[in-house]
C-alpha cells in the first residue's frame, strides 16, 4: 500500500475517533446537568425569597411548609383568593419545582366570579402540577355557602375529591340554586361540581 494512501487512512481513523470522543463527552455533560438539578433546600430558599419580595402579598402570611424532590407544599393564610393563585403561580415558575400543593387558608370571602385554576405553564416555563388541596377547597366552599345563606344552606354537606366538589344534603327549595353553584365555583381550586342536593319543596333542578 502506498505511503500516501496509508497516511490518509490513518488520519481519517484518528479524526473519526476524535469526533466520537467529543460526542460522548458532550452527551455525558448533558446527562449530568439534567440529573443534578437544584436541591430542595435551594428551592425552598428561592421560593421564600420570591414570596417575601412580592409586595402584593403583603397582607397575606403564605409560607413554604416543605419541599421534597421538587414537590412544594405552601401553607399559611391568604388575604384573598387572588393571593393564593398569585403565590402558587409564582412558585410553579421557579427552577426545580415539579409540583405545587396548596394548604393555604383563604381568610377572605370568595371573590365574585370564577377564580379558576388555569395554571398551565407558559411556553417559557416547565409544566408543573398544581394541587390546591381538597381540604382547603372543602372549607372554602362550606364558608361560601354559609356566607350566602347560613340558614338555607346549613344542611349541605360538601365533599371534595381531586378538586371535584359534591354537594349533598337537603335545601328548603331550589330557589337560589344558581347562586349556590356560583358561590361554589368562585372558590379557588374547584374544577367541577356535582349537584346531589335534594329540595324539601319544589321540583328538581339541573346544573
Any chance you could write out the topology, listing elements then pairs?
Blueprint: H1 3-36, H2 40-53, E1 61-68, E2 71-78, H3 81-92, E3 99-102, E4 105-106, E5 129-131, H4 134-148, E6 156-161, E7 164-171, H5 177-185, E8 192-199
Parallel strand pairs: 2-3, 2-4, 3-5, 7-8
Antiparallel strand pairs: 1-2, 6-7
Q: What do you see in this structure?
A:
This protein is an alpha/beta fold and 207 residues long. The chain folds into three domains: 36 residues; 93 residues, no CATH class; 65 residues, Histidine-containing Protein, Chain: A. It is built from five helices and eight strands, in the order ααββαβββαββαβ. Helix 4 packs antiparallel against helix 5. About 22% of the residues have low confidence.
Give a brief rundown of this model.
The strands form two sheets. Strands 1, 2, 3, 4 and 5 form a five-stranded mixed sheet that branches.
How many discrete domains? 3
Kindly report the average pLDDT value.
75
Terminal residue distance: 88 Å
Count of individual beta strands: 8
Shape: elongated
Radius of gyration over C-alpha positions, nearest whole angstrom: 27 Å
Strand content: 15-25%
Q: Would you tell me the structural class of the helices and strands?
A: alpha/beta
Tally of helical segments = 5
Which properties best describe this structure?
207 residues; alpha/beta; Histidine-containing Protein, Chain: A; 3-stranded mixed sheet; 8 strands; 41% helix
